[in-house]
Write a structure and sequence with these properties.
This protein has about 350 residues and is α/β, with parallel strands linked by helices. The chain has two domains: about 1-155 and about 295-344, Isopropylmalate Dehydrogenase (3-Layer(aba) Sandwich); about 165-285, Isopropylmalate Dehydrogenase, CATH 3.40.718.10. It has twelve helices and twelve strands. It has helices spanning about 20-30, 45-55, 70-75, 100-115, 130, 140-150, 175-180, 185-200, 230-240, 260, 275-285, 320-335, and strands at about 10-15, 40-45, 60-65, 80-85, 120-125, 155-160, 165-170, 210-215, 245-250, 265-270, 290-295, 300. Strands 3-4-2-1-5-12-11-6-7-10-8-9 form a twelve-stranded mixed beta sheet, with helices on both faces. Helix 8 (about 185-200) packs parallel to helix 9 (about 230-240).
Length: about 350
């Protein structure tokens, strides 16, 4: 189903962990709607959102809607909420196992809307995975669960974006020991191919340039500090070049992210989680966005967690959610311009 004229620009935002800052930053993002924030609908509990708005003195009106198609008409005057009722009262900072199923239900519903074209994209608010394990959530994170909902054939690739840098971790939710043990040429090539395609289609980069980070200090010093560069990363880079991709590396990670280095590429392939996230959060902690490539729909997320320590205090910064909303709408818009459905 192709998005209709009223839903083409609407983004679905999942509730995330109710005891965290998800509802607060959604309310604050709506309050910033004059700053070119795309129309969005929150998939969550409208009574919880309204009570939080009152308690924090935000003054955000909340309106329950029956379907995402109603969101665009409501958004100028109130935060539209597709009801996903919570099962237990919310204590800020203290997740309740009783609310685990509604959290998952909101994700399921957002994916259903995205796959059917009823929304242009989805933005997932942070979840507390430990709270979900007791109801059968058996995934390292959002990304892997979304791939399963997409039909199991998707190959999800995480891209972290902030002004001035796009970084892609080849391996994500693994310990450093397991990441080193698990790294393969095939994984690097797959990430490189998916990233290059996304840069062209979703980001409008005519001829993408990739940089591949080394794993070991000094790129292994010719094998003296590890052979991963020689045995795994160099062959992967060669394969990417054979496929016509403009790529440099493996480059020592300690000199890949300064200003002059970043000007030489459009995205950096990093070998493990922190190698990608540390530079993103150092450059611009508040405006980082997590974008999942390789899915049959547009998905972004704020690049932060549930922030349980400040939940319910009114201190949460909505900047990353706003950036995620704008990124989702921009990508969906580029796909429409290319006559590609956002869910294609």
């Amino acid at each position: 189903m192709t998005p209709g004229p009223r839903t083409a620009g609407v983004v679905a935002v999942t509730m995330g962990e109710p005891a965290g800052i998800g509802a607060e930053i959604a309310l604050k993002a709506w309050a910033s709607r004059q700053a070119a924030v795309p129309s969005f609908a929150l998939l969550g509990d409208p009574e919880h959102a309204a009570a939080l708005s009152t308690r924090l003195g935000l003054g955000v009106p909340v309106q329950a809607i029956g379907a995402p198609e109603e969101a665009a008409g409501v958004f100028p005057d109130a935060l539209p909420v597709v009801p996903v009722p919570l099962a237990a009262p919310v204590a800020p900072g203290h997740p309740s196992p009783a609310n685990a199923r509604p959290v998952i239900a909101a994700i399921d519903l957002a994916v259903e809307y995205a796959l059917s074209g009823r929304v242009a994209a989805l933005v997932t608010s942070p979840i507390q995975k430990e709270s979900l394990y007791g109801v059968g959530f058996d995934y390292p994170g959002h990304t892997e669960y979304l791939a399963e909902l997409a039909g199991g054939r998707a190959i999800p690739v995480m891209m972290l974006v902030c002004p001035g840098l796009r970084a892609v971790p080849v391996l994500v939710h693994l310990s450093l020991r397991d990441a080193v043990r698990t790294l393969t040429r095939e994984a690097i090539v797959t990430c490189g191919v998916i990233t290059e395609e996304a840069l062209r289609i979703d980001f409008g980069v005519a001829r993408p340039r990739l940089a591949v980070a080394a794993l070991n200090p000094h790129a292994g010093e010719g094998g003296a500090m590890g052979r991963e560069e020689i045995d795994i990363i160099d062959p992967a880079v060669a394969t990417l070049r054979e496929r016509g991709i403009d790529v440099i590396g493996p480059a020592p990670a300690d000199s890949l992210f300064h200003t002059a280095a970043r000007a030489r590429y459009d995205a950096a392939l990093c070998m493990h989680h922190d190698q990608a996230l540390i530079p993103i959060k150092t450059i611009d902690f508040d405006n980082g966005v997590n974008i999942t490539l390789g899915l049959p729909f547009v998905r972004t997320s704020p690049d932060h967690g549930t922030a349980l320590a400040i939940a319910g205090r009114g201190e949460a910064n909505p900047a990353s959610l706003i950036a995620a909303l704008k990124a989702a709408a921009d990508i969906a818009g580029r796909r429409r311009a290319l006559a590609l459905p956002a869910t294609g």
